[in-house]
Amino acid sequence: MTTFERRQRILSLLRGQPGVRVAELARLLGVSQGTIRNDLEFLEQAGQLARVRGGAVLSNSHLIRSPAFEARARINVAAKQRIARWAADMVEDGDSILLDASTTVFYMAPFLQDLRNLTVVTNGIEVGLTLAQNPAHIVILVGGVLRPDISAVMGHLGEKMLDDLHIKTAFVSCSGFSVEKGLTQIDIQEAQLKSRMIRSAERVVALVDSTKFGKVDLTPFAGLDRISHIFTDSNIDPQVVARLRQTCTVLTVCGEDTVSSFAPCDEEVAHYKIGFANLSEQIQFAVDVRRGLEQAAQDTSNIDLILADNQLNGEIALEVANHLISKGVDLVIEYQVDEKIGSVIMDRLRHLNVPVIAVDIPMVGATFFGVDNYRAGYLAGIPLGKWLKENWNGQFDCLIVLHEPRSGALPGARIQGQLDGLQEAVGQILQSTTIYLDSGNTSEVSEAQMIAMLKGHPDQHRFAVIVINDDAALGALSAARKLGRESDVVIVGQGADRRGRAEIRKPGSRLIGSTAFWPEKYGQKLIEVALKILKGEHVPPAVYMDHVFINAENIDDFYPE
Q1: Which secondary-structure segment (H or E) carries 399?
Q2: Which helix (H) or strand (E) holds 49?
Q3: Are strands 182-185 and 119-122 parallel, antiparallel or unpaired?
Q4: Does residue 86 sit in helix, strand or coil?
Q5: Domain 373-516 coded CATH 1.20.1250.20
Q6: How many angstroms from the chain centroid is the CA of residue 199?
Q7: Residue 23: which H helix or E strand, with range?
Q8: Is the separation of the CB atoms in 250 and 261 below 8 Å?
Q9: Are 453 and 400 in contact (CB under 8 A)?
Q10: Are 122 and 142 in contact (CB under 8 A)?
Q11: How far is CA 167 from CA 118, 164, 226, 321, 546, in A?
């Protein structure tokens, strides 16, 4: 990777998360921490990121046209970005949303760019211009008088425009917030417009950094009874958290290492605190699992959910487990890749009598939840074999296996199932024609491995590829495309996550299908299992998802657009 490519990769990572750390970047990109610090310094001087202690956060200053707005945006920037990043997760493809002209809401824009077909209503010039750069979005600017600092449109003309609009979610901020008065604003005109804006919305989400709590400014524009969800940062006073939990509003506290969602307290219902250590926020499948879990926890109304990111790293997973223990969790849902570290984590939790649900990668002593690995693999191996018989007369030069050695034998059964299904269709496969590559569980590592393999076999043109997950499948496909050898490969995936499904829908794609694991359904089932365990009810040692192989012919039956 060249210096330019490495720096672009750093910016790409920042667009998907609230910040990056020097040590993790060095590990991920295979360079020294000194090299990473030089990269961050260069990118900061270019105005593309902002340095913070131990790492960096994305900077939008190069996109901002208003000097006054930019000055406000620089205040408490790391906290605002964390708040915006998690609030943006509430938005889905095709949503109609309303965004106000605040700097905190402006920081949502980078996290919305990969979504499709959003209808965005805003009075914010800066956020409107940023989102309008994506032609997939419709951006509606509320009419009115342009503020002197050219950051927002204000006035009664905008209020009249909102009368006939129906908005799914309004995202707003404020200059002050108190439990008694709700959201308040120092500018009367701005408060009046915001009040009218939120009347058009089904739900109102407030993005309020901790510096604004306890302040009551000139004009209130939304009482607490109108706000369904508040996002703030970890500097919030615990006494304020306790008071907010007595209301009907969900509170999410966005810290540097964990994100905690607090459900409103109901003294008549048993209340539980569940920790979820996610596999990686850089893997779409894991993100979908986490989103489903957040929604399911909110639907139960008696679960506080504490979220953390294992970052595909065993040592970090151990740190996360210790952090969840310090939070006093009643149960841990553990999604991590390292089988050996899993035993250490399990030992610590067992000694504290904290029950564990292990997602997809088993941990001895934990309830297993997730993929029926052999079956999922077998369902992909059969159609791969059929494709080979129909298109290559059942012949191929090499079978490429993108696996994940760290995860152990049970996820490895996913590979064995694909091999058995494939051999059932085409006959015995020789070891001499099989190449095993370490996927690293990511698209980036899989792409690099596949590029090296293809370059080492310039005279061979028929490669069948089986994988541990869709990230590996997409990495392999990207490698073939970069080398102009897409027609040399045929690939089956595992997971059928949203990126995999988008690729399968492309006419003539060489990713011919993927076994669906339904990550968006994990959350509801995980909460059901967790509550049974916490209530002392019987739970089987393993709870499996059902699977189906999704391809271009049946994808709309299961995931209609």
Answers
A1: strand 398-403
A2: strand 49-52
A3: unpaired
A4: helix
A5: no
A6: 30
A7: helix 22-29
A8: yes
A9: yes
A10: yes
A11: 11, 10, 15, 39, 35
Task: Find tokens 């091999």 and name the residue.
Answer: 419
Res. 344: pLDDT tops 60: yes
- Tell me the average pLDDT across 320-338: 94
Contact by Cβ (8 Å): 22, 37? yes
**Alpha-carbon distances, residue 383 vs 113, 268, 491, 516 (angstroms):** 35, 53, 10, 14
Element (H, E) at 549: strand 548-551
- What would the mean pLDDT of 450-470 be, rounded to a whole number? 96
Helix, strand or coil, per DSSP, at residue 508: coil
pLDDT at 396: 95
Which tokens hold the place of 359?
Answer: 């997602």
Q: Within the chain, which residue ranges are assigned CATH 3.40.50.2300?
A: 257-371+528-539, 373-516
Nearest alpha-carbon partner for 469 in 407, 521, 425, 520: 407
Q: What is the rounded distance in angstroms from the CA atom of residue 206 to the CA atom of residue 366?
A: 37
Closest CA to 414 of 446, 452, 441, 393: 441
Domain 257-371+528-539 part of CATH 3.40.50.2300: yes
The region of weakest confidence among 37-51, 158-172, 384-398, 441-455 is 37-51
DSSP 552: T
- Pairing between β-strand 55-58 and β-strand 250-254 as defined by DSSP bridges: unpaired
8 A C-beta contact, residue 404 and residue 365:
no
Place of tokens 């699992």: 289
Q: How far is CA 29 from the centre of its chain?
A: 20
Per residue in 14-70, pLDDT tens?
866 667 888 788 888 888 888 888 888 888 776 677 776 677 876 665 466 777 887
DSSP string, 196-243: HHHHTEEEEEEE--GGGBT---SEEEE-GGG-SEEEEETTS-HHHHHH
Distance between CA atoms of residues 283 and 278, nearest Å: 10
Task: Say whether domain 3-59 belongs to CATH 1.10.10.10.
Answer: yes
SS3 sequence, 238-260? HHHHHHHCCCCCEEEEECCCEEE
CATH number of 61-252: 3.40.50.1360
